[in-house]
Every structure is written in C-alpha cells, then in structure tokens.
Inverse folding.
C-alpha cells in the first residue's frame, strides 16, 4: 500500500524527533555533534490511522515498539543530522507501508507433466531396487 502525500504529511505532524551523539568512527565530528536521529511515533494516539491499521502496525512491527507503545526508528549512518533525519523518515514510511500491505494470496498450481513423469520414474527405480534385494525364486 503506497501512502498518499497528504497522509505522509499528517503522519509526520504526529512524529517526534530527538538527536543524540552517534557512535562509531568519525573523530571530532562524532564527539561533538548530535547527528544520530531517533524518530518516535505514538501509534495509539494517532488520529490518522484507524483501529485496524493500528492493530496491524502493532502486530507486524512489535519488535520496533517500546513499552509506551511508540514506534522507534533510528538513523546514524550519515555524518549530517539533516540526512539522518531524511533517512529515518524514509525508513518510517517504508515500515508503515510494509505493515499496512496485505499479503498476496497464493494461487494453487498443479504439478507439471515433467514433474509427474519424474516422480513415476523415481518410484519405478525404487521398486526395482527393492525387487533386487529379495532372494531369487528357484
């Protein structure tokens, strides 16, 4: 399910961002600048999503939820806070779209003629192998 732009804007209005120091290499930039972005989305308090959508998000994204029922998305890959914020929002929308898409139903297919033929040949070979194990009739 692709989210329309106006719903994305409404969802972004309900999101809270916080910045902290990022880990890893980077020297002085990492030690002084708050580049890591943490996006928090309170799912239960959302006015944009209906109850069914909220339940789907809770079920499919339960590993990314905290105890307060907030969806957490972090980004610290970039050296810039702005780029990390962009990546976090992009990741957030991808997660929401993934959670709200319904899985496609599997279409039943019949075995192909070649696979049926192969199965029968395999059965005949196994039967012959078992016949050879028997003692000969005199």
């Amino acid at each position: 399910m692709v989210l329309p732009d106006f719903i994305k804007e409404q969802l972004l209005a309900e999101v809270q961002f916080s910045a902290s120091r990022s880990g890893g290499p980077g020297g002085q930039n990492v030690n002084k600048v708050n580049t890591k972005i943490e996006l928090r989305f309170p799912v239960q308090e959302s006015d944009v999503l209906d109850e069914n959508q909220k339940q789907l998000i809770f079920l499919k994204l339960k590993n990314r939820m905290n105890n307060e029922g907030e969806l957490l998305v972090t980004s610290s890959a970039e050296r810039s806070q702005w780029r990390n914020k962009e990546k976090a929002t992009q990741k957030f929308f991808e997660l929401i779209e993934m959670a709200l898409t319904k899985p496609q139903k599997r279409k039943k297919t019949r075995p192909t003629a070649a696979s049926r033929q192969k199965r029968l040949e395999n059965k005949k070979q196994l039967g012959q192998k078992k016949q050879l194990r028997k003692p000969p009739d005199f």
User: Anything to note?
Assistant: DSSP finds five helices and three strands in the chain. The mean pLDDT is 90.
